[in-house]
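Data card: per-record layout.
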Amino acid sequence: MQESLSAVIFKVNDVWHGQCVEHDIAARAKTPQDIWYELERAIVAHLKIAKDNRIPGGLRAIPPAPDFFRAMFARGLRLQQPEEHRFTTSGFHPVTDLRLSETPV
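The structure for this 105-residue chain is written out next.
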């Protein structure tokens, strides 16, 4: 069974950051259009590493993100999911709810 993941994106200076909420997995990109791709790439990479190294639990072995990211996600503006995902695993799209939030203080 694949879990659905949530993430928040925000900009710090000229860099876009993406942070998964359920697991402490993050990515960076130069444009907001690229952050979804980079974040999903990081999640799928973690899944592959866990599988290749027979790490039980897959993503469940990675702790949740710090609470302030969950708060940013809750306040964030929901973004439309792209029509095409470049990274999937068995038809699973890693990030199903992405939200734009203000830069953390």
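Known properties of this structure: Helices lie at 32-52, 67-75. The CA atoms of residues 19 and 42 lie 10 Å apart.

See the next section for split statistics.
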